[in-house]
Amino acid sequence: MKFALGISLLLVAASALGAAKLQIYVANSDDDKITIIDPTTDAVSGEIHVSANPHGIVPSPDGKRFYVSSESKDVLDVVDRASGKVIKSIPIGLRPNNVAITADGKRVYVCIRGKSWVDIIDTVSLEKVKSVEVGKGPHNVYRSPDGKMMIATAMEGEKLTVIDAATEEVKFEILPGGVPRPVAIDAGPDGAIRRLFVQLSSLHGFAVVDWATRKQTAKIMLPVAPPDAKPLIPATFSHGMAISPDHKTLWVDSMLNDTVNVFQMANMKQLATIPVGRGPDWMVFTPDGKKCYVSNAGANSVSVLDGATFRELKRIPVGKVPKRIIASE
User: Fold this and answer.
1) Percent of the residues in the chain that have a pLDDT greater than 70, as a whole number
2) Is the pLDDT of residue 23 over 90?
3) Do the beta carbons of residue 121 and residue 107 sit within 8 Å?
4) What CA–CA distance (Å, rounded) separates 100 from 254?
């Protein structure tokens, strides 16, 4: 009897572990919740309530937590994945924007938009331990594919600051040729960066920056917009892009045309234009590359795009003004 009970408990535990599956998480920036989408059904499967105006969201490497910045409450919410509850709200700087986590999960970097630095949070003590100057108006921060660096963008500073993840000191800066917005990182199989694709304010397209020389080498323009087209956010003509998992295509949105545009990585030739909802913002692929999910900030929805046929499959209603979007198991 005890043996049978033990087997039963093991089966329950295995079932619980097996239940963990890929979900899409959408930060609704004019709301107080994260919407969860099940990519197997493309339907809303739940939500996580957080502090008002969530901006950035990042999972811990072990999958046990989310870290979510609140732009209006000046805190970083620590969310327990199992319960979906906020276990702590960590006070940080004025108007926190996007977030990133180190490869070992020990540090979370948060752009402090109202100041000129990124705050660094220790994930054991759940306290801010350091701030690093990166230029006025920090907006987005990214971990390099090899995990060695953190890259922060400064809007008013018009630069990218590269921070050594081991020493937490600035290594160098890159001037992208304008006000930097979202960035996509082109890296080789070993994680070594080759190029950066940088969206710039008032540019209906993106800049290509060579990593070795730290110089802008090209500007790629999106299809011409109607003369009366107005972006959802002033001076924000394009605000979201992603590289497909097979590394063959770059997907770039247009806030003027309400489209997603697909380019070949090899030569930057445009392959397709996909109509989506009003004000397309950030996007994310499923790991297999079969689907790309795009936040429509002006339509309170998420578009589901087919990675092979370059067409919209579905629009899913979510919360108010969805922006940052991630895929996580």
Assistant:
1) 94
2) yes
3) yes
4) 25
Residue 211: which residues within 8 A CB-CB, separation 6 or more? 193, 194, 195, 196
SS3 (DSSP) at 240: coil
Contact 56, 96 (CB under 8 A): yes
Whether the full predicted model's pTM is greater than 0.85, yes or no, is: yes
Question: Residue type for 209, please?
Answer: V
- DSSP letter at 7 equals H
Q: CA-CA distance, 220 to 303, in Å (whole number)? A: 24
Hey, what CATH class is 182-329 in? mainly beta
Please report, to the nearest 10 degrees, the dihedral formed by the alpha carbons of residues 146, 187, 96, 286 taken in order.
-100
pLDDT digits (tens, 9 = 90+) for 156-165: 999 999 999 9
The DSSP 8-state label assigned to residue 148 in this structure reads: S
pLDDT band of residue 86 (cuts 50, 70, 90) is very high
State the span(s) of the chain assigned CATH 2.130.10.10.
52-174, 182-329
Structure-block tokens of residue 12: 């329950």
Give me the residue label for tokens 């499959």.
313
CB 255 within 8 A of CB 231: yes
Q: Which CATH superfamily is domain 52-174 in?
A: YVTN repeat-like/Quinoprotein amine dehydrogenase (2.130.10.10)
